[in-house]
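Q: I'm teaching a short session on how sequence maps to structure, and I want students to see two examples side by side rather than one. Could you give me a first protein with its sequence written out and its structure tokens following it? Keep the formatting plain so it prints cleanly on a handout.
A: Of course. Example one:
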Amino acid sequence: MQIAQVNVPADLIHFGVGQPGFDLLPLDLLRRAAAHRLGQDEPALLQYGLETGSGYFRQALAGFLSQGYGTAVSPDHLFTTNGISQALDMLCTLLTRPGDTIFVEDPTYFLALDIFRDHHLRIISLPVDDDGLIVEALEEKLQAEKPVFVYTIPTFQNPSSVTLSLSRRQRLVELSQTHGFYVLADEVYQLLDYTAVPPQRLFHVSDRSRVISLGSFSKILAPGLRLGWIEAAPALLEQLTASGLLQSGGGLNPFTAEIVRSLLEQGWQTEFLTRLKAVYRSRAAALSRALHHYLPDAEFAEPDGGFFIWVKLPQVADTAVLLEQLRPYHVAYHPGLKFSAQQGLRQFLRLSFAFYDEAALEEGVRRLQVGLAALV
């Protein structure tokens, strides 16, 4: 019987798995947190939750985020969710109707595209370079289109790992105010910096009324918790809490949020994140070294944070076709076209360094090299 979503055969190295390895999941830490919270004699944690999420949890979360972000976060701007995927779905339900136009980056997180398609939205792509979303391209598109929102992953982007520059962040927020669209900032990797500190977050560069920040414990604690948050102006959060879903079922994931509250209040989450970043820093460096050694013609930038390395193979016409050809070599990845709403980026592939240790990462790249040498 299978428990987890990921089910990779033992003989396969699958670089497409963009989640923590089983060796990084803090089972003992969560046991300690659960014992601490359940020892507080608080029966209210087993009740329907407050619509915005427990005030105690949001206060603890605000303190943790303020320390991690380096800018003040208010509990009044926080709304508890079952992770970023559910937050995106809820925001699409609140803000859009079928046929509405939205803008996304190209490349972008491919499963977010699936959520947007579920809501029958018209998706327009914007190009990305080494400084993130190209705002000049956005300005050009705004002459002819009126998007409801722009979805961006501004820090250590999935899949490219690029970070939106401060000047572009400022201009993006200015444009949102001028043209009346929202900025949905998926900031799930904001706290996972390894070699460079990212710029000030979009939610803090200017007026916050048009910026909606999304965060999650999936990448910094454990994805199975299904616990995250929306950070937005209170007026927008009030619209979310007025939904029939929350009026009927109460706040989202209240029991888990209270367990994580203990991690936050006791400082255990901060300690764990420090250890986690050290592991990911080492794994990112190992994957970069392996690429330089085994695939010297590959084009990529060494990541400063996040989970991924975005690789261009100049000698390959379509990495989706290559993926099928590599089956006998027991290595896999996500091809570039999955990350493009326009089905482009066919010379690219995304490699994750989060799931495997350094030795497996090197072996996986070696298998790629052997397969390429035999096929190309």
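Q: Perfect. Now a second example for contrast.
A: Example two:
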Amino acid sequence: MSLSSELKYDANGLVPAVIQDAENGDVLMVGYMNPEAVERTVETGKVTYWSRSRQKFWVKGETSGHLQHVVEIRTDCDKDCLVIRVTQDGVACHDGYRSCFYRAWEPAGLQVIAERGVDPEVIYGKGASG
């Protein structure tokens, strides 16, 4: 039996995937997977997502070189969400931060609480996104 056949997908055929640093537990990002993206991730050991905006598969790091190598895949009790523990090459966020969760809510509003690791224009070029 395959992992993809064990999961419960939403009405769009997707399951959310929370990506976590296997070493320190930090949440790096959240993406979405359809059954084929799940299977590609299992087969290659590199996290593959389904892009809802572009309607195509993408491997994290295929453009930037900042790959996510799978250490472990977990599912929640309802089997409708994944936690994928990874070793992260470089940064996970297309804004150049280690984690996409680099802002925290404070009474004055959202504040950046992390240092940018890389300039996104250097990786993706002007006007490009990750």
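Q: What should students look for in example two?
A: Point them to this: The radius of gyration is 15 Å. Also worth mentioning: The first strand starts at residue 15 and ends at 21.
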